[in-house]
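[Archive record]
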Amino acid sequence: MQSSANAVLEKANYPGRPDISVYWSPGCSMCLNTKEFLEKRGVPYESVNCVTQPAGREELAAVGLRGLPVVRKGKKFCYVQSLDVVAEFLGLPRGDRRLLTPAELIERWDTILQRARAIVTSFSVEDLARRATRDKPRTVLVLSSHVYQIPEVFIRVIEEDLVEYEDLQNKPRADIRTRDDLLAFIERVMAGFEDWRTRRGAAAIPETVMTYYGEQPSYRVLERAVWHSAQHVRQIDTVSAGLGGEFQVPAALYADLPMPERLWA
């Protein structure tokens, strides 16, 4: 398990490089959010695309970090799954914003997932086989299933103390190959989510949870899961509109979620 606490590479030497680096990969929503956060604050940083720059992955492996994004400052590295973590690590102001309550986040998530189901149901077999993003070889089918893998895993984290879940959340599921597979998966996830939301919901969420990147405040994990799903729903909604459909998710449903402004990395 990796920790979100600072990792230090004592023998690191970065001649001629900025003091701050962001290690990222295309299609990573938190990576995009991290870069936007620094750009808005005028913080210069080195952009290290770990897909096109394998040396970046080697640097992270040297400090025992396997996920992305990671921010480096000098010899210290920080694994990032929240903008609060970026702000704390770099000593930057987070900025005033409205924090939705856990109950509000869950209700918002439910509405967004319901809208996403309508979008995905409208896709044909041919639509689902299309490439979904310009910066990552991910089909509409894979992206659509990813939207629902996130809440499925979140509930398991809360109810089953699941810790090692990165692959379950981020890698394509081998059992989802067809449109029927996808729609059946969405129905299963939504049924489980509705049952959990109505019977347990916010009251069942502890103050902290153990994750594959260390013990975390549960609010950060919940908020991250909600906006992570929402960002990908924005993407499939855009794909649908590009195929001649109408946008299904009003912008108001994204309000107060700390999402990236840009759609793609």
Notes: Confidence is low (pLDDT under 50) at residues 1-5. Residues 14 and 165 are 33 Å apart (CA to CA). The chain has nine helices and seven strands. The longest strand covers residues 20-24.
